[in-house]
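Troubleshooting log. The previous structure file for this entry was overwritten by mistake, so regenerating from the original sequence record. Sequence copied from the archived sheet and checked twice against the printout by T.R.
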Amino acid sequence: MVEGGKMLTVKDIKKKFIKYDKNKNKTEFYADNGITFQAETGKIIGILGPNGAGKTTLLRMVAGILEPTSGSIDYDGLTFKKNEIEIKKMIAYLSGNTKIYNSISAYELLTMCCELYDVPLKEREKRIKEISELLNMSDFLYNKIEKLSTGQTQRVNIARCLIHNPKYYILDEATSGLDILSSQIILDFIKREKESGKTILYSTHYMEEAENICDYCIMINKGVIIEEGTPEEIRKKTKTSNLRDSFFTLIGGTQDEE
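Regenerated output below.
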């Protein structure tokens, strides 16, 4: 990918964990081991791999939730150690299992998020209305979140990420477990945000989904990058017709998928 300019740069990051067996024997392992990539402005970067590949750990480090054991993460020349507040205002992080208050309405949650991110008071109602229309939330905006379907709740989750108009989206399995209609609404939203110049890291194990929306794909297995490139480049390198077959070709079959 292109060097230089304003972008997200991840360089040789590693995350070591320690686990103990039933006999209390200690084992060290790397969930991610030497991950390097760049995410250019206005691109959708797919982080692809099976469950347990290291995708979520990677994105949590990129979002500043976990600290890498080693390596560096740089947003437009800024780092978490020196510029954490500035970076947090630039990014939005969403995972498939993000928990939100369920005893309040979607509208009340978005109002709270406006306050949290210092959205000017005079702009809040307009911003909430725009986001509600963008994600087809008007019919349930004032309903309590606990009464919403899984797909509706995930749209509320994405809405709260939109409130402060972030430059970078970090989306971890954003459509996992959703019905086809809710998934498509979210995928259409991602495409629109790309067209407006946003940069999106999109983690998924749905290879067909990635093939449809990603400009560049990074395939991860067992904590390391096994291939990267545009979907077309990866298909060409592996002599396959789709990314699912490409992945299986790269790992030597289906035995490694969890």
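The mean pLDDT is 90. Archived copy saved in two places this time.
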